[in-house]
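Thought: the user asked what Phosphonate transport system ATP-binding protein looks like in 3D. I have the sequence; next I should run the structure tool and report back without guessing.
Action: structure_tool
Action Input:
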Amino acid sequence: MLELISLTKQFGTKTAVERASFKVDHPMMIGIIGRSGAGKSTLLRMLNRLSDSTDGRIVFQGNDITRLKGSSRRHWQSRCAMIFQQFNLVPRMDVVSNVLHGTLNQRSTLSTMFNLYPQADIHRAIEILDRLGIAEQAPKRAEALSGGQQQRVAIARALMQDPAIILADEPIASLDPMNAQIVMQSLRDIHEQDNRMVIANLHTLDTARRYCDRVIGMRDGRIVFDGTPEQLSTNVARDIYGADASFSEAATSTQIDTLDRETARLLEEAKAEALV
Ligand SMILES: Nc1ncnc2c1ncn2[C@@H]1O[C@H](COP(=O)(O)OP(=O)(O)OP(=O)(O)O)[C@@H](O)[C@H]1O
Ligand SMILES: [Mg+2]
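Observation:
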């Protein structure tokens, strides 16, 4: 389905990603982990064609997407929607318009200029927001929402593109543990219910283990681990993070698993509320 063949990115003399290869046969949820500077963002940006690779190839469903240009490159970018740590919403614009921006690639300049959206798109945007538990936020300005809600708006905007792949670059790095869990669960649900592939850069081991079917570990631009969460032992993690014997998993943890009872109860309440 998706194959990366010896994908490489060089910035001057610095090799940010070095001969990264992996193959995905069916839509799964993949977590990419590794310390800061390991090359995680560079890899996602090449996949999305936000950044050109120096060498190697990306093949999706038999098509080489490595050198697509112009409208075919833009078409690919709508097939693999990207979400970011900082949400990248238009803060002063209302939520539903932010979501409708997800259809931008498919619309004429004129309708974009006048902010004209087909009725059907507006309905679909509200439906997607509803699915993510934030339909009632639709008329509000994006900046009025909490971080977790804003990230769900960004996910809704991505879903508007009906993407085959959702790429997420540290989607929960700016969120508190409770919102982090809600956002990760939303991504997991989208993967399971819609059969979309999700590839997320994550900086915590426990999140990768908990939500992903497969974990890819990067170190100094290279893929040094590719396996299931079960195979990701503490020793393997130590190797990925390049830490010495004092390495502790807690240091890379969002501690979602160690939520106390009261927090867990609040979380359940928040989730129930999100479903109303
Ligand atoms: N535009 C750029 N120009 C020069 N060097 C870059 C550029 N982007 C990234 N790099 C370098 O490439 C390497 C990989 O960076 P990248 O941002 O992919 O790492 P990362 O794993 O996403 O790190 P983090 O966890 O901090 O987000 C780093 O050494 C970085 O300094
Ligand atoms: Mg990064």
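Thought: the tool returned a structure. Summarizing for the user.
Final Answer: Structure for Phosphonate transport system ATP-binding protein predicted. Residues 11, 14, 16, 34, 36-42, 203 surround adenosine-5'-triphosphate (ligand 1) (CB under 6 Å). Strands lie at 2-11, 14-24, 29-33, 55-60, 63-64, 80-84, 165-169, 197-201, 214-219, 222-227.
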